[in-house]
Amino acid sequence: MRKIIILLTILLAGMVGNANAQGVRFWKGSFEEAAQEAKRQDKLIFIDFYTVWCGPCKSMSNRVFPREDVGEYFNETFICCKLDAEREGKELAKKYGVSSYPTLLFINANGEVMSKTSGVISAETLIELGKNTVAGMNDPNSVMNLKKRYEAGDRDEQFLRSYIEKMSENKLDPGAALEEYLKVQKSMKEGSSKMMEFLMTYS
């Protein structure tokens, strides 16, 4: 009897250990419910936009998201959602300009983009991206805070240039800001090779 109790204790400890060692826990309910939970817990939302036919998406699902270190950080820090960009996540994918898969998106509970990247990345890079996104919330030069300045009417030439560069880094469309920048910039002549190079870089 004593041996049976010891064996059951070992098995139970192993089960608990495996439960704690799991990777990213993705939200099981609707995205609207996830957003409400993010607001309640004062957390950002992490979204993995995927498709069923996407090989790189399967690589992330099989090799990165199950990692213990990824799960430990992401489960504690974010409300994590996994959305099929062609099914239940179709409208959100359209809203956030998702055109390649996987697209990994961090937003706040109000739907504002904190950071965005596409393609397969390593577990270490994903964790670093998450940490940088959290740190960026208090950074005056984060894409979110620059966006607030832009929407408040700031049209300073240097500011617009920084905003465009930051949006490009985060794979966001800088189209409107680009048009505003071209109206006020004085460093490039219209139709010059310098301007063409600039447009090729950020359009």
Structural summary, described in words:
It is a single chain. With 203 residues, this protein is α+β, with helices and mostly antiparallel strands. The chain has 2 domains: 115 residues, Glutaredoxin; 60 residues, no CATH class. Helix content is 55%, strand content 12%. It has 10 helices and 4 strands. A 4-stranded mixed beta sheet has the order 2-1-3-4, sandwiched between helices. Strand 3 and strand 4 form a beta hairpin. Helix 4 runs parallel beside helix 6 and helix 7 crosses helix 8. It is globular and about 55 Å long.
Write a short abstract of this structure:
The chain is α+β, with helices and mostly antiparallel strands and 203 residues long. It contains 10 helices and 4 strands; from the N terminus they run H-H-E-H-H-E-H-E-E-H-H-H-H-H.
Write the layout of secondary structure elements.
Elements: H1 2-20, H2 31-41, E1 44-50, H3 55-64, H4 68-77, E2 78-84, H5 90-95, E3 103-107, E4 113-118, H6 123-136, H7 143-151, H8 157-169, H9 175-184, H10 193-202
Helix pairs in contact: 4-6, 7-8, 8-9
What is the average per-residue confidence, as pLDDT, rounded to a whole number? Answer: 88
Low-pLDDT segments, ≥5 res = 3-20
Question: From N to C, what is the helix and strand string?
Answer: HHEHHEHEEHHHHH
Write the CATH fold name of the largest domain: Glutaredoxin
- % residues in beta strands: 5-15%
General shape = globular
The total beta strand count reads 4
CATH superfamily of the largest domain: Glutaredoxin
- What fraction, in percent, of the residue positions are helical? 55-70%
How many domains would you count in the coordinates? 2
Radius of gyration: 21 Å
Largest sheet: 4 strands, mixed
* Level-1 CATH class name of the largest domain: Alpha Beta
**Which structural class best describes the helix and strand composition?**
alpha+beta
* Number of separate helices: 10
| Ends apart, CA distance between termini | 73 Å
Question: Numbering strands along the chain, what is their spatial order in the largest sheet?
Answer: 2-1-3-4
Which CATH architecture of the largest domain is right? 3-Layer(aba) Sandwich
